[in-house]
């Protein structure tokens, strides 16, 4: 189960931390608030990609926050539990250099 996601300079999320509880969790907000960005970040953390990246509608550099000013890197940290064990994944995107 995914327990937490931390976004740093990921699209419109300068510094966002979301915690998830057992059961159904809902992400709501107005258009452009960053709901899809959260889902893309979770997919990116788990698989190293997300649908818009696969279809070339986005590039890794477009995932890095550029307003009000261009940032140099973005990161997604995902925390999850499998059975009794806790895990975390950290992926970073560096402007012009790709992912680590």
Notes on the protein architecture:
The chain is of the alpha+beta class and 100 residues long. 17% of the residues lie in helices and 38% in strands. Strand 3 and strand 4 form a beta hairpin.
Fold topology:
Blueprint: E1 2-10, E2 13-19, H1 35-47, H2 51-54, E3 73-82, E4 85-94, E5 98-99
Antiparallel strand pairs: 1-2, 1-3, 3-4, 4-5
Structural key phrases:
alpha+beta, 17% helix, 100 residues, five-stranded antiparallel β-sheet, 5 strands
Percent helix range: 10-25%
Structural class: alpha+beta
Task: Give unreliable regions as ranges.
Answer: none
- Give the helix tally: 2
Order of helices and strands: EEHHEEE
Radius of gyration: 13 Å
- Give the tally of β-strands: 5
3D shape:
globular
Strand content: 35-45%
Oligomer: single chain
Q: Looking across the biggest beta sheet, what order are the strands in?
A: 2-1-3-4-5
Mean of the pLDDT scores? 95
Largest sheet: 5 strands, antiparallel
Distance between the termini: 24 Å
